[in-house]
Amino acid sequence: MSEPLPDGALLWAWRHPRAEGAQGRCIGRTDLHVDPRRAKRLAHRVRQAARRHGLPRVVWTSPLRRCADVGRWLRRWGWEHRIDAALMEADFGAWEGLGWEGIPREEVDAWCADFAAARPGGGESLRQVLARAAAWTPPAGAPALLVTHGGWMLARRWVAMHAQAPQLPTEWPRAPGHGCLWRLERVRVEWRE
Q1: Would you say 46 and 59 are in contact if contact means Cβ atoms under 8 Å apart?
Q2: Which of 167, 137, 141, 171 is CA-nearest to residue 154?
Q3: Which fold has domain 2-184?
Q4: Angle CA(170)–CA(130)–CA(25) in degrees, nearest 5?
Q5: Which residues lie closer than 8 Å to 186 by C-beta, 6 or more apart?
Q6: Would the CA dihedral through 157, 60, 68, 116 be positive or negative?
Q7: Which residues lie below 8 Å from residue 56, measured CB to CB, with a gap of 6+?
Q8: H or E segment at 126?
Q9: Cys staple from 181: which of 2, 10, 35, 108, with CB 3.0 to 4.6 Å?
Q10: C-alpha–C-alpha distance, residues 50 and 133, integer Å
Q11: Can you give the pLDDT at residue 163?
């Protein structure tokens, strides 16, 4: 399930496997369990891609279990596993882990009205997530293999293609599927937070 992008892509980013208990809930930094078989399957796919394309045997992951468990499998197989909090999903503050129906409608409406700058649940604004994704750089310009989150992947792609944050929720694209690979290029536009 790879999305075709130019061969010069530097970041090979996989979205973590589907987490247990996420359905219908606001999940950003809530640390949910992933079935070990799902984590192992994704680790196999990462390993196969690295072999096929001559990529380094180093994987960067978010510290959240749904990403880090994949890195732990790779570490068992002789890989280097680096954990970086900059690869985490957005922080939804007080909304974390709540069912969407339990979040007051007026709070969701206020977020949508100021989509780029509002801090849902008192957490992180979209501008902050975009700036964090834009700032992440692989060491020494080498290709980097990541297991990260859908929101981080969307943010990284957004800043590679746009000079500023989206103003409306309808401008924000859909997240990649669980386990999907996106090959992402360096941020080329000048990003303004």
Answers
A1: yes
A2: 171
A3: Rossmann fold (3.40.50)
A4: 60
A5: 10, 137, 160
A6: negative
A7: 50, 142, 143, 144, 145
A8: helix 126-135
A9: 2
A10: 23
A11: 83
H or E stretch covering 40:
helix 36-53
**Two structure tokens written together for 165:** 């944050």
Paired strand residues for 170: none
Residues of the chain with pLDDT under 50: 1-8
pLDDT at 1: 37
| Partners of 181 in beta bridges | 2, 14
The two structure tokens encoding residue 23: 């359905």
Separation of alpha carbons 188 and 38, rounded Å: 34
Strand stretches in the chain, DSSP E: 2-3, 11-15, 58-61, 80-83, 144-148, 181-184
- Cα distances (angstroms) measured from residue 172 to each of 101, 133, 143: 21, 15, 27
For the record, the structure tokens of 66 come out as 């749904």
pLDDT at 141: 66
The domain spans of the chain are 2-184
Residue identified by tokens 């990403």 is 67
Is pTM beyond 0.85 here? yes
